[in-house]
Amino acid sequence: MACTDKGFYVGMVLGIVMSSMVASCSAYFFKDTELTWGGERGKIFNGGQLLSLSLDKFSGSGFQSKKEFLFGRIDMDIKLVSGNSAGTVTTFYLSSQGPNHDEIDFEFLGNVSGDPYILHTNVFSQGKGNREQQFYPWFDPTVNFHRYSIVWKPQHIIFMVDDIPIRVFTNEEAKGVPFPNKQAMRMYSSLWNADDWATRGGLVKTDWSKAPFTAYFRNFKATDLSLSSSSKSLSDSHVESNGLDANGRRRVRWAQKHFMIYNYCTDLKRFPQGLPPECKRSRF
Ligand SMILES: *[C@@H]1O[C@H](CO)[C@@H](O)[C@H](O)[C@H]1NC(C)=O
Questions:
Q1: Which terminus of the chain has fewer Cβ atoms in its 10 Å neighbourhood, N or C?
Q2: Localized where (predicted)?
């Protein structure tokens, strides 16, 4: 079967067959996305298999998926800005539009050479975020490509790095916690200047003498899970329909024990009135 834009929708109807179809279309990824800002700062190479974004004094750049979907899994291999990346932020996230938007974020906060990036995650539902968890990566994210994934299902959201789950946000609407499950989202990715807060809370500014700053992207894959969400997707390592398997749970504990540097769920100073309800039971 030809790999066309229709594959995305045909796949939804065919259910499980979709995974392999979408996989076979992943090389055509950049046909499914568009550079949306930054002009020449966004570039596509290798017949559409590699994309770079850059940032200079005048502007950053970004791209987004042409399609939106309600539940899905997105994967992207990213090689972050190397050298002195302080003040820069690279993003890879899902978002809906409008004032009460939903959003599921990966943000990579740069640093001076040799000091660690921060891998920042957040979940917005109906316009409200404030659910940050941050990690130091266990590798140098600027030397090689690493895979970052968001699994968004009606039951939960899972953040993964190189297929290792690092965070689970469970649907706890029963406890009154809003969960993003009504608004379709698009994938967005960008590189921009945020030296007012990104590095050591804004203390370290972008060194423009090192510009342009460049990050690289490849192997984007969007798997629509809207109809097949009850069937186990073949590509979901460690992910079961109700959450993680035992091995996946071990890995989340490993990542959180050794690499988590901030968790809103333990920030009592920030929530003097009491921690948000979703923080009470789950350790994640
Ligand atoms: C940058 O390095 C400093 C010093 O090691 C560290 O405190 C900080 O968390 C690192 N990351 C960012 C994004 O500020």
A1: N
A2: Secreted, Cell wall; Secreted, Extracellular space, Apoplast
